[in-house]
Amino acid sequence: MFNILAMCDDYILGNILNIVKKTIDILGIVVPILLIIGGSINIAKGVFNPEDKKAVKKVVNQFVSAVIIFLLPFVINTTMKIISVANDDTTSVGIHDTGKVERFDLATCWNNIRTTKIDYTASFDSSVKKTSDAIQKELENNKYEQIIQNYWKKKEEEKQKQQNNNNSNNNNSSSNVQAQTFNKIVLIGDSRFAGSDQWYKIGNEKTVYIAKGGTGLQYIKDQMTNIKKYDNENAAFVINSGINDRGIVNSYISYLNEQAKTFKGKVYYLSVNPVEESKQQGSPYYTTNQQVNTFNDKMKSGLDSKYITYLDSNSYLKSKGYNTSDGIHYDKETSQKIFDFITQYVK
Length: 347
Fold this sequence. Notes:
The protein is of the alpha/beta class. Helix content is about 60%, strand content about 10%. Strand 1 and strand 2 (about 100) form a beta hairpin.
């Protein structure tokens, strides 16, 4: 941004002032000549028609206008010189580009504009310097931005480390669950359990699957009558659902807590298990492991441990490894790992 105190050094403003001054000088000559010619024509008309008083009045006005316009450049230049001289004795009122406080010098610039040689090179160099300074400032801003990004990256790493510790603790909590033996194990869930049953035929003589792809809490509600057909003191019910409707975690908690109280058998909730985010690119059902962890944390803290036992297979799979076909659904080996994990505590 230019400083008006140094405008005579600015190429564009210098040229503008020069054009304005030349225009005023030309008008101070051309317009009076035109007015004199017009006045002469009106005088001629008055000679041939002495009774035309309007013509005489026009002649007077035109000659007065010609004198005023002719004197206008002289008046402006004289005024600027007076201002320039007066400014020599006044207090400084501005700051030059160099940072030095100086007086307002527009009048002197005006008076000397026609004799001032505009240095194109200096003007260009000045613009380059200003551009260079702007680039340097931008680089400094980027440096600070990088510092901020590094800070948040470090905070995210610390958060992830804490999450891993929590997962480890959750895994230990599953290990503390006492294994129990049952005559019937009912596995209730969505496509992940359905795949173990229909695709891979994973299970044993005790196992009953009540599972369907693309389902969630509503499916469990719809199947509750069918589920309770297997309810007795020697039955276990393992619920693994939530990947398809993570947004209603509170509804899961309230419904399962309410229903678990009515069961004679033992009720387990198997955590929602991890995903492979890289394999889900473009999927409309894209899910992150952070979303899975958040859902599981809320379920673990919200479920009534008096009636429902929480099993953390999510941390177990992360420690043992897992594979999916599309980021969500597991291959046979991973599905077998999940079933083996269940049978560690539910036999």
